[in-house]
Design brief:
Porin, mainly beta, globular, 264 residues, disordered N terminus, 14-stranded antiparallel barrel
Length: 264
């Protein structure tokens, strides 16, 4: 599965690409939640807490903002994020986001990303993604950076969505990684225009650039995640995730996330 540092942006990009309904009203949503993952081989567990808000108008222009606290390998970071997206016409839509960590012990100091999506035919959407991250200085005093590009394809049939994303990342100092994700989602229980519950299965494999206390390294990854959003009514929803991920021979991390969402 994607690492916690990339999962939320990927979810936001997928949400932007969902087929729009003309009768959807403007909507503001707020979500807060926590995550916990147990690591093997005696490593400290990973923990995080987040709060995020989003606003979307009737024209499907969207603004997102968030705050997050993350604990990994006994280190704690704080992070903010700001992004948005909008239809561009002729079947195109675009999104962009920036995030920063004033502490950047384990998270990137800065991350910028952008995405373009296009409806190739009814129910079929293609996408192109770009990402750039800068980390704290190395022991030698230099700044570490990574760049990534990706392609995506997703299709909708009835209440089902099938999607694939492939991503290639490169470390400035040398080395690269390729990983891909496949996801199957089922939508159910509409509580109002645009207010739909869903449950999905996400499978990932490949290599990732991971920031460890000793620096950025390339490790093989395999993971599976069950995740969803359940609408209780038109105002409240519960988001959740259960996952397990093997990071090469280093460790396996398994755990979950639970969030509460309020729509206005």
């Amino acid at each position: 599965m994607p690492s916690p540092s990339t999962a939320l942006p990927l979810i936001a990009l997928c949400a932007l690409a969902l087929p729009a309904r003309a009768d959807e009203p403007a909507r503001t949503e707020f979500e807060a939640g926590i995550a916990h993952e147990h690591l093997t081989r005696g490593y400290d567990p990973w923990r995080s807490a987040y709060a995020q808000a989003s606003w979307q108008d009737a024209g499907h222009r969207r603004v997102d903002a968030g705050l997050r606290t993350t604990e990994r390998f006994g280190l704690r970071d704080h992070e903010w994020s700001l992004g948005g997206g909008a239809p561009l016409g002729l079947g195109w839509s675009g999104s962009a986001a920036v995030s920063g960590s004033p502490t950047h012990r384990i998270l990137p100091r800065w991350t910028g990303q952008a995405s373009l999506q296009r409806e190739l035919q009814p129910g079929l959407i293609g996408s192109l993604h770009w990402r750039r991250s800068l980390y704290g200085p190395t022991d030698g005093g230099g700044t570490q950076g990574t760049s990534g590009i990706g392609l995506g394809l997703e299709g909708y049939v009835g209440n089902w969505r099938l999607a694939w994303t492939g991503s290639r990342s490169r470390l400035d100092a040398g080395g690269h990684a390729f990983s891909h994700w496949a996801e199957l989602d089922h939508y159910y229980g509409e509580r109002g225009p645009g207010l739909v519950s869903h449950v999905g299965l996400l499978v990932s494999a490949g290599h990732e650039l991971e920031n460890l206390p000793g620096g950025l390294v390339v490790t093989p990854v395999r993971g599976v995640s069950l995740l969803g959003l359940h609408r209780i009514d038109a105002r409240w929803a519960v988001s959740w995730e259960l996952s397990t991920n093997r990071q090469g021979e280093s460790y396996r991390r398994s755990g979950g996330r639970l969030g509460l969402r309020r729509s206005f």
